[in-house]
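Reply to dn_fold:

You asked what the input looked like. This is it:
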Amino acid sequence: MRLSRYFLPVLKENPSEAQIVSHRLMLRAGMIKQASAGIYSWLPLGFKVLRKIENIVHEEQQRAGHMPMLMPTIQSADLWRESGRYDAYGAEMLRIKDRHDRDMLFTPTAEELITDIFRAHVGSYKDLPLTMYQIQWKFRDEIRPRFGVMRGREFLMKDGYNFDLTKEDAMHSYNRHLVSYLRTYERMGLQAIPMRADSGPIGGDDTHEFLVLAETGESEVFYDSTVTDLTFGDRDINYDDVAQCAAVMDEFTNLYARTDETHDEALFNAIPEDRRRVARGIEVGQIFYFGTKYSEALNAVVQGPDGKQNPVHMGSHGIGVSRLLGAIIEASHDDKGIIWPEGVTPFHCGIVNLKQGDDEADGACEALYTSLKALGLDPLYDDRNERAGGKFATMDLIGLPWRITVGPRGLKNGVVELTSRRTGESEELPPETAVQKIAEIYAGT
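and this is what came back:
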């Protein structure tokens, strides 16, 4: 993509309505535009990152054996009345009527709908275990939407649902989701800590939230500092191996880490004082086991090996896909702008032409652009007739991890400048070497 042809409406000043870093930078970098309170249009740059995050979620869900599907955004209220949640859910649910005066709702979550699909088509334990998920827009009518995509009313969410014959089987599904979530977040350059949490209107006793530590987090969290030393890394996990998944669960949840709703002062004080931490966290996902709550209410039963009818054991598992953009920016930025991790960057690198119109500089930039594209990389070439300072400021603001700077002086010596956005360090390299280095950086992402 050439910047002269790209729609990137960057802002020089901080928008007055933006209270936190991610909201300010997403507006300034031309990623989103507010349509109404808590509802945003996703402009090309923001949409590109959103799709990168969505693709990682899809890949890791399917790696764990979960099947993608898609359910509607509008549901009938009848299912929610059947489960008993229609009146209990609260004012966050957007209730509407269709032209036939039937009660409908804009989906805040989809336990009822997926259970209705299951009960219509599955009748035997031989069809279990089963886990399906979707990435779909949701709506919750927050009383005070704020912080941009961090607490909006409309949001993109991955919601998955497991169906199992026994609690033991369902807890393996729970553990499997925890493992897949750890892989997902680390691929995005995040450390998301699983913390014992409150289930809220979803229900159930077993639930963990995944939180990214950040000063602007909406949740107060209490944890043993040792949890921040844990990394999942490149482990080879067999998701069908019950013991292996359970071992990862134990490793990442046996140290104290809780949100304020489940905080236990006595347990916290048992941690050595130098390891006790109180901080703020941004929730980016949550996993639940809620047993037979919905299957009993909606009569989702299967015939067991003994011939008896059994309500299935269920869980639901969410990742805030659109919310993750804000969380990544909150965790990775400086006073110049965003710093995208390589796994989710909208473009793999930027090319800055210091002297647009100079035949040699133009030719070198075109050659770099073509070489990177030929290797399957996606560069953003700033070919505008602008001052160098303005070009650098734009690249710093939008946060591409790597920048190749091309100018007549360097070309006389046969080199271009390769700069890391994260460290600010630069090195002069022959153009072909710079291209090869960028390719090597992204080979493992």
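The first strand starts at residue 32 and ends at 36.
Hope that clears it up.
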